[in-house]
Amino acid sequence: MFALIRQDRDLRVDFFRGLSLWIIFVNHIPGNWLGLVTPRNYMLADATETFVLLAGYAAGLAYGIVMDRQGWLFAASRVMGRVFTLYVAHIFLLVVFTAQVGYSAERLDAQAYLDELQLDPFAREPYRALLEALLLRYQPSFLNILPLYIVLLAMFAVAMPLLRRPWLLLGASAALYVATRTFDWDLPSWSGEGWFFNPLGWQFLFFIGCALGYRPPGGAPFTVPYRRWLVALSLALLALGVVATQLLYFRWDIAEQRLPAVLARFLAGIDKAAMHPMRLATMLALAYLAAHFIPRTAAWLRGWAAAPFVLMGQQALPVFCAGIALSFLGRVALEISDQWPMQLLVNLAGPAALTLIAALTAWYGTEKRAARRGAAPAAAAAGAPAGAAPVVANPLPAASGRDSG
Fold first, then answer.
1. What residues contact residue 259 under an 8 Å CB cut-off, 6+ apart?
2. Whether pLDDT at 217 is above 50
3. pLDDT tens, position by position, 94-126
4. What are the phi and psi torsion angles at 90 (to 5°)?
5. Is the Cβ–Cβ distance between 213 and 64 less than 8 Å?
């Protein structure tokens, strides 16, 4: 496993992205006991916020380098190529997930699967549902993260030149965020209720990640320096979030009865769809503490316990897609029995399968890069014409996060 991990990257990013993928798998299985200890139960930010912030960081790092070397149009074309890859992956996952859930609903006589996972339109209007899904206007449950990422990357392709002026980029992004929350802007959906993850709100977190990831040639990167008062503020914010989470999701009766009406309304308005400021602030506080208290050279990031998460984080797209399908299998298994033997089986077999998929993907990528590197000397030995373009194995650096999900 260790031989498949690319060590010349910021392994903190890969570890937390892999951890987020595992948490998403766990949270998508109703009745999973591990779901009781995931971050969504204790703070106003969870794996999705982590995933989006790190996706922005990887995009700013990888494509910012391409832009500085080969220009904006070339870099934008690379981004749109990634958008197309994500779109194809989303449609493939939609077909697999719909077939998986539909077959299970028929065989197990469980119509509730279709209703709960919002796949019932395929039973009522299959052709219209397919069209709306292709247009990203219809997103069944669990299939709304990739459409969000697709739109964010498309926005990034246009805004990429602003990476060189991070405060202008963040100012424009913040203005769109405020306008979105003020005027309830959203992208159109088939249901008319808007997107589950509103890209116009989530783009602010994504572009913060882009600004942090970009490394200007010959200049200092955009950073937030260590300050004791910022550490104290971050810790206080996280403590406040713990209380708010417990009241909002587990003890709302206390919030209604004992809190002032204004405060209770504020808690009730903490939404995830358009990235409520409290959720945004919580994620930024977590990122600030992690960046300053976990050194890039931390030995544990290269240890055996972190290795599966680092490997999954480096192969995020196939792991995410597989995790969606496996989580439904885990749900069916726990509906057969939710006692500790089945709990143990689901929570060991699932991550093991995801790690295996990551390992196979990494191995294939290593073999492909080796073949490309070997092609260059072979072409030279065969007498390539003078001035011919060299064979480039990978225009992105090894630490670029090109394979981000």
1. 247, 267
2. yes
3. 999 999 999 999 999 888 999 999 999 998 999
4. -65, -45
5. yes
pLDDT for 372 equals 73
| Cβ–Cβ < 8 Å for 282, 238 | yes
d(CA 21, CA 316): 8
User: Could you give the CA distance from residue 55 to residue 207 in angstroms, rounded to a whole number?
Assistant: 9
User: 79 by DSSP, 3-state: which?
Assistant: helix
Beta-carbon contacts of 156 under 8 Å, excluding residues fewer than 6 positions away, are 56, 59, 63, 79, 206, 207, 210
Q: Using alpha carbons, list the distances in angstroms from residue 134 to 82, 91, 98, 183, 321.
A: 17, 7, 14, 27, 17
pTM: 0.90
| The residue count for the chain | 405
CB atoms near residue 80 (< 10 Å): 14
Location of structure tokens 């997103």: 139
The contacts of residue 99 (CB under 8 Å, 6+ apart) are: none
Residue 374 has pLDDT above 80, yes or no: no
Q: Which two tokens stand for residue 129?
A: 């549902």
For residues 167, 169, 170 and 174, what is the CA-based torsion angle, rounded to 10 degrees? 130
Return the closest-CA partner of residue 174 out of 241, 79, 182: 182
Distance CA 399, CA 62 (A): 8
Write out the two tokens for 394. Answer: 């990978």
Distances (CA, A) of 283 to 47, 177, 352, 366: 10, 16, 28, 33
3-state secondary structure of 183: helix
DSSP E strand stretches across 54-199: none
